[in-house]
Fold this protein.
Amino acid sequence: MRRSWAAWLAILGRREGGTSLALFRLITAAALIYNLVPAILRGLVEVLWVDVAHGGYRPLTAAGSWLVALLGGPTPGVVWGLVVVTLVAGVALLAGVGGRIGGRLVALVALQGMFAISMINGDAKGSYDALLCNSLWLLVLGDGTATLSLDARRRGGSWRSELLVAAWPRYLVITQLIAVYASTGLHKVSAFWLPMGGYTALYYILLQPTWHRWEMYWLAWVFPLTQVLTALTWTWEVSFPLVGLYLYLRQRPGEGGRLRRLLTRWDLRTPYVLFGASMHLMIFLLMEVGPFSFITLAYYPCLYRPAELRRAAAWIGRRLARRGGERPAVTGAGAAPG
Amino acid sequence: MSTGAQEPGDQGPSTPATGQGPAARPGILAHLLGLFVIYHLAAVIIQAIPDPGVGLRRAAWREPTVQQEFKVWAEFFSGFGREVTVDELQGRLWTIAQGFTEARAAIAEPFGPYGHYVGVRQPWRMFVAPHRFPTALVIDVQEAGEWRVVYADRSTEHTWRARTFGHDRMRAAIFRYGWPGYAKIYGDFSRWIAGLAAADFPEASHVRVRMYKRRSPTPEEVREDRVPKGETIYPVTIALEAWR
């Protein structure tokens, strides 16, 4: 027990470059802004989140947010105050200001603002609100401003920094992503996601007027493709924990039995990330489901250690340079800071 | 939690904390962090366990979309040698789902405050099942005794206030109001629409808010141009006098 606890504390003591968490911060902040700005531009702030007595469309006296209750209820002043403060915090988060402590406080303000707003009207909230709040909490726990931030530029004159950050918040980001996909897969108990329903779920979901961007009867002519994608989506979601298992097992390469060697033989992340990114792109193109895809994709860089991201960036840089007929600007894994 | 300037190596997962060699004794903060991260992980994993309680409403179970699910599952279970009727399946599922919901609520209880105050919640009920009988919001106004459609979901012709009704948050609300159990809020929603209509259509005497419910066509029906006809449900007609 004592040895296990010591091993656990050793894991929590690990440190690494800040690039993965910084990318998570950047995309999360952009998603937060994207979550609020269209509602403002379409004049929906008071319609959705203000009580009917002040211009909203429904009574909201039993608001689900402790903060809104504390502030006196969903009146225009309270709601607009929350929206503005959250938006400003989102911009500050995007810029990466505040330092190790202040940056976390900015994330906390953004979290509490977004959480309060989203809990006011339960009918007008989406799963993306919950995911966004989880993302912001993870940015309170981890230092997302160490690099790719105004802080880094002010500190060292460069947008990038080699400052090390705690690795455990990135592990929590990965756990959260696995929980989202596995849970949503396990929720899909409809027969239409499975063979007994003919794998017809995606076809019928894409016909629903609530979610599609335009009428999609053309799917009837590519129906077998929707069946294949239904089967793949469900399997991909429920099996996503394998990515976590792979990341855990690969920490001791060469150890263990045949199953361990099999699971760590190939980088499982690549097919899962490629399928996930394609799926989210298709959702974004075909459906109107808010910023869900955007928020989820913020988690993907954290599946990789900063050094791996740096190698990938160097590889892409070399490919682009070769295509442009120039000498590559970045020639090695160690050429750029993490 | 000191910071260093050395980039972590690629072979190991990450570097150990600076100044924390194998012999270093972790301080009280490290132990508290260890406990907190365990609590957080437990909160995430336990709250992510599917919660059937959200859909445990008899009225919702009577909806044709849900009934069709039961029919397919009853046929599937009947394939194992003993006939299972839809009623029998519903009865058993209701009991199992109630028990599961209670057990889940009990183990998730310690994480309630974490969700309520911090916002760490795991509601991942996304596209649980396709809605085979979806509804679409339709709004008509009456001018000089004649009704005309001014808005219909995803219509390119009837687009009054489409920017408002087409926003994803509004779509989420409209989706819910097509299900039973939202009569009161649907009434509030209709009255709010009446206020907008009174301002935008000065000649109109009435507004009618309704849901158009239609079974989604099978691929064969689409290809053979046999798209089923739908029906109007939940019509609410409101005189606009009060807003003028």
Observations:
- The longest helix of chain A spans residues 19-41.
- The CA atoms of residues 314 and 330 of chain A lie 6 Å apart.
- Chain A touches chain B through 98 residues (CB under 8 Å).
